[in-house]
Prior knowledge:
10 helices; 9 strands
Amino acid sequence: xxxxxxxxxxxxxxxxxxxxxxxxxxxxxxxxLAREKASGLLEELTQRLRDLLAEHNExxxxxxxxxxxxGSNQAWLAPRLAVPQxxxxxxHDADLLEVASQAPAGSExxxxxxxxxxxxxxxxxxEGPEVRLVTCxxxxxxxxxxxxxxxxxxxxxxxxxxxVTALLSLSVTGAVEIHPAHEHDxxxxxxxxxxxxxxxxxxxxxVGILADxxxxxxxxxxxxxxxxxxxxxxxxxxxxxxxxxxDVAVESDPTxxxxxxxxxxxxQQQLSRGExxxxxxxxxxxxxxxxxxxxxxxxxxxxxxxxx
Length: 308
């Protein structure tokens, strides 16, 4: 059952951007494997949640999954959070929420609520004194700066106090490596990244920008790479990823139509011969607000600049 948030109205100023359900399902295995690389963040998060529950004498953490889609984030994260949980899956796409999987077996999920709404609804969903975890997966690059500031305020603004933590996963960095190299790689990458920054979207700059916004709000920020590493076992995902990459490059710059077609044809031939390896850069971000009265944490450097 999906319900609409009370604060969500047609024509919300925060733009909704549809994501195909089949793409979310196709990338799920790669996402889950990549997230295993950030096990250190998960251990730190779980310990902080246990401490907060004990400090505030609460029996479960309230988890809000922003841009929940088909529920992949919950499927991976819920069994790994060794605390009782009540989940809210927030997404603007009712069709995606309808197919979101039930709480995974072996987890301590007590309740899952699906809410139809946008990021603008998040402040209303985080009101109250509960211990909360705000989480998302593969979302930050789709935000504008204004939306990123809304998210940062929810996580670490004056109303959040020390009860709100955040795990923001699988943010693209713009770092893409395809072996063997091709003469048009840099051209395709430049056009693709320009498209990711269209209409004031943060694109591959998002994780660095949000990390800075959180540090400005006295938040302890930890970053861990969660890159996709794709090979022969991921042929279907590679095919989809490269095809979409070529299409987006042409959408950004229509003069690249012939170049993109040549590039994609060569890549498909290499893939069919088992010669292709693809690495796509992602980063997980853990935000731990400083306890009341403590000085602001020393800022860590933002992630390295994207590479082509």
